[in-house]
Amino acid sequence: MEGCVLVRYGEIALKSDQTRKWWNKILVENMKDCLKRNNISYSKIDIVLGRLIVYTKNPKEASLALKNVFGIKSLSPAIRIEADFELIKENSLGLAKNKGKKFRVSARRITKEFPMTSNEVNEILGAYLKERLDLDVSLLNYDFEIGVELLEGNAYLFTERVEAFGGLPLGVQGEAICLISSGIDSPVAAWLLMKRGCKVDFLHFKITEEGYQKYLRIKERLQKFSYGHEIKDYIIDGVPYLSNTKKKLCNKGKEKWVCIFCKRRFLQEAERICNEKGYLAIITGENLGQVASQTLKNLTLLDSTVKVSVLKPVLAYDKQEIIDIARIINTYDISKEKEPKCPFTPLYPMTTGSVEELENIEKMLWD
Ligand code: ATP
Ligand code: MG
Question: Which residue in 31, 86, 101, 163 is deepest, having the highest Cβ count within 10 Å?
């Protein structure tokens, strides 16, 4: 009998053999990084048909840590034994003790060499446990479940299933840079792209010290999802540019434009870093209509600033949907902490700017 974690993956299963091999390799590397960072020892990780098996003396702890590795759909702390029905009965008996009254057995043959069908295992093992422990079988309303997965001559027994986030292994889609603030939206945007397989680094404009300190803590939380990649960050002091630009805009009676110039600067700096370091895209936490400046017109106007793709994964989410994710990923409590308002925001920001106007003002400013 050996302690292990049974790891089930999601979309990787749909890929061609070649892609699956490549993605599995990255997934295993990311899992190793996760176990190492969480100080969980393990002896090996096996790639078997449709599953990954982590051999460890701490399957429960390992499952809870590995849940944050993208590409994994669910995990079960398990024991591995030889696929022999007598052994399965004996070990299930141990697992079923003190777990409640109503139970069910859910067997699954991943490979088909075991002589009984899944239904036969469910029925015969169910009847055996019922009798030996004086339990009730209840298929829908049960206190616990005995899971049995049969695979290549082994049986994996478990009673728990930890749901993970799915997605794709971090790294299979290349690298992107996220414009990240201390607010609610951009950390969620970064997380969503990590979940789809991007290694994400951060660009933060420091405008207030409080915002910057919040950002640093958010980064730490997001590192807990970035296994296989140490998040790198670029910090730019935003104050000199903003105070100078605001002064100039005010002098020309164009104060309304400050936010557009500010966001434009963010994108220009992000593009410069993309070109220097090879990032494939910029990510922002922009959302349609959430604040006055986030009109479709402004968003497209801003996109015209750069040639690199600007990905906005939370563009179409409702605020509550973004908050729900922020809570799950543990950034919400930091993001919602009060901080001083941006000292450069005008009373009435521009909502309907056009590219021509923007270019004219820009010329005017630097003449
Ligand atoms: P967030 O919740 O992410 O702060 P928001 O709803 O407050 O977004 P804005 O303030 O208009 O919206 O910011 C839009 C986007 O610009 C942010 O999602 C983020 O990608 C980027 N951004 C804003 N402030 C900063 C900053 N200080 N440094 C880097 N990027 C920023
Ligand atoms: Mg913000």
Answer: 31
Domain count, the chain: 2
Here the tokens at position 19 are 């892609």
Question: In which element (H, E) is residue 37 found?
Answer: helix 17-37
Q: Which candidate, 83, 20, 80, places its Cα nearest to that of 50? A: 20
Q: Based on the number of CB atoms within 10 Å of its own CB, is 233 exposed (0-12), middle (13-18) or buried (19 or more)? A: middle
Q: Which of 132, 163, 194 is the last residue of a domain?
A: 163
Smallest CA-to-CA distance from 212 within 339, 322, 336 is with 339
Residue 29 within a domain: yes
Q: Does residue 90 fall inside a structural domain?
A: yes
Ligand whose nearest atom lies closest to the CA of 204: 1
Q: How many whole angstroms separate alpha carbon 196 and alpha carbon 165? A: 10
Burial class (CB in 10 A: 0-12, 13-18, 19+), 247: exposed
Distance (Å, whole) CA 325 – CA 167: 14
Burial class (CB in 10 A: 0-12, 13-18, 19+), 40: buried
Q: Is the pLDDT of residue 328 over 90?
A: yes
**Residue 132 token pair:** 């030996």
Ligand 1 centroid to residue 285 C-alpha, Å: 6
**Residues constituting the chain:** 367
pTM of model > 0.85: yes
Determine, yes or no, domain membership for 168: no
Using one digit for the tens of pLDDT, what is the confidence trace for 5-27?
999 998 888 899 999 999 999 99
